[in-house]
C-alpha cells in the first residue's frame, strides 16, 4: 500500500483536485517541516471552528455581522443576490459594486434535491419587506440551475415592484462567477440589465 494513499484520498476531496494533483500536494506536504504542517493543520481547524454566517446576509464572517453589512459606506438601497459566499469574494475584488448582499445557499436543482424551500428565500422576502431597496441584482451563475433560480425569484419578487437586474452577458454559459476574471466580471456588473420576463411561481 502506498503510505501516502490516505492523504491522497483526502486531498482528492478538494474541488479541482484529481489523482495526480493530490499526489503532488501530498509530496509537497511531506517536504515541509513538521512545524509548518502543524501550523497549517491548526489554521484549517481554527478557521473552520471560528467561521460564522452573518445574521443579515449569510456571508461567512468571524462575527455575528459580516464586514460588509456592518460597513457605513455601503449602498443599502441595492441588494445583490448570490448563490454562495465565494461569489461575494469574486464580486468584491472588482470594486464595481457597492451595495449589500444576500446569500441563497445554493441554486434550485430538483434533480439534486435542492428545492426553493431548501434555500434562504424566506429570509430574502423578509429582508425586502423590512427594508427599502431600489435595485435587486441577480449575480447568479449563467447555468440551467442559475437561470431557473433567477426566473423563480423574479416571479416571487414581482409584487414588490422592484428594479430587478442581472449581470450582463459576457460570462460564458455554465461558468462560475468565482472563476471569472475581474475585467469580465466588472463589465458584467457595470452593464447589468433589467429583467422583464417572468414565469409562474413554482408550487
Provide a concise account of the structure shown.
This protein has 203 residues and is of the alpha/beta class.
Give your account of this protein's structure.
This protein has 203 residues and is of the alpha/beta class. It folds into two domains: 5-50, RecR Domain 1 (Helicase, Ruva Protein, domain 3, Orthogonal Bundle), CATH 1.10.8; 73-194, Dna Topoisomerase Vi A Subunit, Chain: A, domain 2 (3-Layer(aba) Sandwich). It is 39% helix and 13% strand. The protein contains seven helices and seven strands; from the N terminus they run αααβββαβαβαβαβ. It has helices at 5-11, 19-31, 34-50, 85-94, 121-130, 144-157, 182-190, and strands at residues 52-53, 60-61, 75-82, 99-103, 135-138, 163-166, 193-194. The strands form two sheets. The protein has a five-stranded mixed β-sheet with strand order 4-3-5-6-7. β1 and β2 (60-61) form a beta hairpin. α1 crosses α2 (19-31) and α4 (85-94) crosses α7 (182-190). It is elongated, with a radius of gyration of 20 Å. Mean pLDDT is 88; it is low at 198-203.
Task: Label this structure with key terms.
two-stranded antiparallel sheet, 2 domains, Helicase, Ruva Protein, domain 3, Dna Topoisomerase Vi A Subunit, Chain: A, domain 2, elongated, alpha/beta, 203 residues
Amino acid at each position: 500500500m502506498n503510505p501516502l494513499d490516505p492523504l491522497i484520498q483526502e486531498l482528492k476531496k478538494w474541488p479541482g483536485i484529481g489523482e495526480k494533483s493530490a499526489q503532488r500536494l501530498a509530496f509537497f506536504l511531506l517536504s515541509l517541516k513538521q512545524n509548518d504542517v502543524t501550523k497549517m493543520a491548526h489554521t484549517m481547524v481554527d478557521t473552520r471552528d471560528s467561521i460564522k454566517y452573518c445574521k443579515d446576509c449569510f456571508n461567512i464572517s468571524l462575527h455575528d455581522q459580516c464586514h460588509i453589512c456592518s460597513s457605513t459606506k455601503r449602498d443599502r438601497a441595492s441588494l445583490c443576490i448570490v448563490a454562495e459566499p465565494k461569489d461575494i469574494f469574486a464580486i468584491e475584488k472588482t470594486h464595481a459594486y457597492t451595495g449589500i448582499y444576500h446569500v441563497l445557499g445554493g441554486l434550485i436543482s430538483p434533480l439534486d434535491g435542492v428545492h426553493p424551500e431548501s434555500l434562504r428565500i424566506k429570509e430574502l422576502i423578509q429582508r425586502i419587506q423590512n427594508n427599502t431597496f431600489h435595485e435587486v441584482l441577480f449575480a447568479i451563475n449563467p447555468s440551467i440551475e442559475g437561470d431557473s433560480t433567477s426566473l423563480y425569484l423574479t416571479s416571487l419578487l414581482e409584487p414588490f415592484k422592484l428594479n430587478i437586474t442581472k449581470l450582463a452577458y459576457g460570462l460564458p454559459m455554465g461558468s462560475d462567477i468565482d472563476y471569472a476574471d475581474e475585467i469580465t466580471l466588472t463589465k458584467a456588473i457595470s452593464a447589468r440589465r433589467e429583467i422583464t420576463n417572468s414565469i409562474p411561481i413554482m408550487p
